Amino acid sequence: MKNILVTGGAGFIGSNFIRFILRQEPDIQVVNLDKLTYAGRMENLQDLPDPQRHIFVKGDVCDRDLVQRLLRQHRIDTIVHFAAETHVDRSISAPDQFIQTNVIGTHTLLEAARAYWLEEGGPGETSVRFHHVSTDEVYGDLRPGEPAWTEETPYDPSSPYSASKAASDHLVRAYGRTYQMPYTITNCTNNYGPYQFPEKLIPLMLINMVAGKPLPVYGDGGQIRDWLYVEDHCEAIWRVLRRGTPGETYNIGGNNQPTNLAVVQTLCDIADELLHDSPHAPHAQLITYVKDRPGHDRRYAMDITKIRTQLGWEPRQSLESGLLATFKWYLEHAEWVSQINRQADFQNWLELNYTKRTP
Ligand code: NAD
Ligand code: TYD
Questions:
Q1: How far is ligand 1, taken at its centre, from the CA of residue 85, in Å?
Q2: Which residue in 28, 58, 102, 314 has the most C-beta neighbors within 10 A?
Q3: Where are the domains of the chain?
Q4: Does the domain at residues 196-224+258-297+318-350 carry the CATH identifier 3.90.1210.10?
Q5: CA of residue 297 to ligand 2 center, whole Å
Q6: At 33, is the secondary structure helix, strand, or coil?
Q7: Could you tell me if 6 and 30 are in contact, meaning their C-beta atoms sit under 8 angstroms apart?
Q8: How far apart are CA 89 and CA 289, in angstroms?
C-alpha cells in the first residue's frame, strides 16, 4: 500500500479516515477524489497531519476519464471507496442521485480499476486492492429475537439508499469473481463522531439542543441501531486493508443496541451536565415525537465475531464515552456548525424533511 485513492474523503468518515491513515502510515500518499456535494466540506480536511501527503481533487466518481487518469498518474495501488449519497431520508425524497453515485459511481471505479490494474498491469509488482465501504443496512430489518447479522446473512434492503449500497456491494463481488479483482468489503453500523453532517440523528440532536430547538424523534423512538465511534471504524478499515483476505467481507459494529429514544435521552443528560446554565435545561423537554419515516427499519444488530477473531479488531470507545467526546467536539466547533447552518440548502432540507412531520 503506497498510493491510495480515497473517494469521498471530504465527507464525514472519509475525512476521519484520511486523518487516521496519514497518522498511521508514514509512507503512503493519499489522493482524495470528492465531488464536494452538500455533505463534502474542505473544512473537514483542515489540520491534516502531514498534509503534503494528501492531494485533493474535486471531481465525480462517475467521471470515468478523470478516475482513469488519476489511477495512472498517481500509480494508485489501493482504492478505498467511501463516496456515496448517504442519508436515508434524502433517498426517500429524491432517489435518483443515490442510484447515480452509489451504483454507477461504484461501477465506474471498478471499470477504471479493471482497465488499469488487470489489463494494463497497473503499478507493477505492487499488490492492488479495491476496498468498498458499505453499510449494515443492506441486511434489512431484524425482527425481535432474530440473531445479529453475520457476513452470510442474505441481503434484504429497505430504502433506496440501502438498495443502492446493496447493488454496489454486488457489483464489487461480481468483479472479484468474474475478473479476479482483488477486493474487500466492510459493512458497518451507524457511525457518529466529529465532522458528521448534522442531518443525521446524533449531530442534529446536538445542534438542536444547543439552539433550544425541538428534538424530532421519528415514530415511537423504539427503533434500534448499533452505534460505532468513527475512529473505531477507521481503524477497522485499516486492519482489513493491512491484514484482511482479498475476496472477503467483514462486518463492523459497536456492540451496542440502544433505542433511538435512549440515545437522545443520553445526549440530553450530557447536555444538562455540559450546559447546566442553559435556559433549555432539562433538555429532555425538547423531545418531540414526529411522523415516522416510511419503510423505517426497526432494528439493526451486527455480529462482529469474524473481524474480532480473524483480525483482532474490537471497538475501543464505549457509546457513553463516544457520545461525550462527540458532544464536546461539536461545542468546540461552533463555527463549523454555523457555516452549515448558514447554507440555504441545509435550511431547505430541514424545512422539507421536518415541516410536514410536525405532530
Ligand atoms: P457523507 O455523506 O458524510 O460523505 C459522502 C462524501 O462523498 C462527501 O464528501 C461527498 O461530497 C462525496 N460524494 C458524494 N457523491 C460523490 C460523487 N459522485 N463523486 C465524488 N464524491 C462524492 O458520508 P459518510 O457518512 O462519511 O459515509 C461514507 C461511506 O460510508 C458511504 O459509502 C456510506 O454508505 C458508508 N457508511 C456510512 C455509515 C454512517 O453511519 N455514516 C455507516 C456505514 C457505512
Ligand atoms: P440516521 O442518523 O438518519 O441514520 P440511519 O437512518 O442510516 O440509521 O437515523 C438514525 C435513526 O434515528 C433512524 O432510526 C432514524 C432516526 N431519526 C430520528 O428519529 N429523527 C431524526 O431527525 C433523524 C435524522 C433520524
A1: 6
A2: 102
A3: 3-189+227-255+299-317, 196-224+258-297+318-350
A4: no
A5: 10
A6: strand
A7: yes
A8: 16
- Compute the distance from residue 294 Cα to the ligand 1 centre, in Å: 22
Ligand 1 atom 43 nearest Cα? 135
Just list the catalytic residues.
Answer: 136-137, 161
Quick: pLDDT tens for 94-148: 999 999 999 999 999 999 999 999 999 999 877 999 999 999 999 999 998 999 9
CA distance 199 to 355: 14
Q: Which triple of cell numbers denotes residue 307?
A: 473481524
pTM, whole model, 2 decimals?
0.98
Q: Give yes or no for residue 13 CB within 6 A of ligand 1.
A: yes
Kindly state the DSSP code that residue 137 receives in the 8-state scheme. G
| pLDDT tens sequence across 201-226 | 999 999 999 999 999 999 999 999 99
Can you tell me which atom of ligand 2 is nearest the CA of 88?
6
Beta bridge partners of 251: 187
**Partners of residue 187 on adjacent β-strands:** 134, 251
Q: Give SS3 for 100.
A: helix
Kindly identify the ligand whose nearest atom is closest to the C-alpha of 158. Answer: 2
Residue numbers of the chain with a pLDDT score lower than 50: none
**3-189+227-255+299-317 CATH fold:** Rossmann fold (3.40.50)
